[in-house]
Write a structure and sequence with these properties.
single chain; alpha/beta; 7 helices; seven-stranded mixed β-sheet; 222 residues
């Protein structure tokens, strides 16, 4: 199956099925993204499964990730000089923004090996150095990490609640956690502080709307 093959095969698949494009809210960056002009956009989950692929979340610049990346680039003090984790990295957009904003180190974490490869390709396209991991970090201590960034991690319950509880533990230990999210179904009902609002252009095929109101939030301990 493709997702278990070598990085070179994964990279070749990504390059063949995406275009190097600028997310609307973060035009400074370029990512390997699916578009109407490439086959990946039109493949069903069944088609992807036959190729051994998970849904290609890494191939889209989701609204929460765009908002969080924009915030980081406009507020570099949030990551400057720090060791940063981009949790659920997908394309690596947020981690790449952190690298551009002066983070000391950046780790992009996503359990999908294709996402890990996409992060590496996208980092190279933007002249950013980062490392990747496919380890499931939920429940771990995150030793050496100063700041956690999470874009679009609130899609469904109960996973979103599990992740939020784990991240709140890190906030309680003095580790800032910033979330980019348009208040999806699993978004925390309380214990968040809004930092900035954004209107993000999104493909209607993904979000059922052309413009999605999104925000960046700071997670509190409780």
């Amino acid at each position: 199956m493709l997702k278990t093959q070598g990085v070179n095969a994964q990279a070749a698949f990504i390059k063949a099925n995406t275009e190097l494009l600028a997310p609307p809210l973060v035009p400074e960056l370029r990512l390997h993204l699916a578009s109407e002009t490439v086959p990946l956009w039109r493949q069903s989950e069944e088609d992807l499964a036959r190729q051994g692929l998970d849904p290609p979340f890494w191939a889209f610049a989701w609204a929460g990730g765009q908002a969080l990346a924009r915030y980081i680039l406009d507020t570099p003090s949030s990551v400057y000089g720090h060791s940063v984790l981009d949790f659920g990295a997908g394309s690596g957009l947020v981690g790449i923004a952190a690298g551009k904003a002066g983070a000391r180190t950046v780790i992009c974490a996503d359990i999908d090996p294709m996402a890990s490869t996409a992060c590496t390709l996208n980092a190279a396209a933007n002249g950013v150095s980062l490392t990747t991991t496919t380890e499931d970090l939920v429940g771990t201590s995150l030793e050496g990490i100063d700041v956690v960034l999470a874009g679009d991690m609130c899609y469904e319950e109960p996973l979103a609640s599990t992740i939020a509880a784990w991240l709140r533990d890190h906030v309680a230990k003095g580790r800032p956690v910033l979330i980019g999210d348009p208040k999806r179904h699993g978004f925390p009902a309380a214990g968040v502080e809004k930092l900035e609002d954004y209107a993000v252009e999104t493909p209607a095929e993904l979000e059922d709307m052309a413009l999605r109101r999104t925000a960046v939030w700071r997670l509190s301990p409780a």
